[in-house]
TrEMBL record:
It comes from Dermacoccus nishinomiyaensis. It is found in: Cytoplasm. One of its GO terms (molecular function) is hydrolase activity. GO terms for biological process: tRNA threonylcarbamoyladenosine modification. It comes from the Bacteria. Keywords: ATP-binding, Cytoplasm, Hydrolase, Magnesium, Metal-binding, Nucleotide-binding, tRNA processing. This is tRNA threonylcarbamoyladenosine biosynthesis protein TsaE. Belongs to the TsaE family. Its main location: cytoplasm. PANTHER family: TRNA THREONYLCARBAMOYLADENOSINE BIOSYNTHESIS PROTEIN TSAE. Coiled coil: none annotated. One of its GO terms (cellular component) is cytoplasm.
Amino acid sequence: MNDLVIRGSKHLPDADATTAFGAALAGVLRAGDVVVMTGDLGAGKTTMTRGLGAALNVRGDVTSPTFVIAREHPSLGDGPALVHVDAYRLGGFGELDDLDLDTSVDDAVTVVEWGAGMAEGLSEDRLHLTLTGLDDRTVTVETAGPRWADIDLVAALGLVAD
């Protein structure tokens, strides 16, 4: 993960702010984007993805896919679908690859919770979000790949530049 560039961070004081951040994130994402989320247990990864899914206007409630591993939410409009993966119980990239996510990565926004160290193989272009804290959170945004070089994530997401 040496190719990561820190773009900034944002304080998220509660679940509503975390959901709103997810909605703002949807504004910069497009089909083919991969978002890798890490952080403390209960830090808001699914809450943020719920806001993202609502803003993308996808079908179904966005809930933790811990036991089903991956869940696809088709678009209800003209935007991309959302593929939501929980890699917590996976043993590495080989098991993630067995999910055949590459068949949907180009057509969807793919969010992989607990994906650091294994989801990097899905795309050269990725956002890495690290959530710390529980009720009073901070999200740190890092990017990898040329897709993000000219996108002002500080302005789009209200980040404090690091």
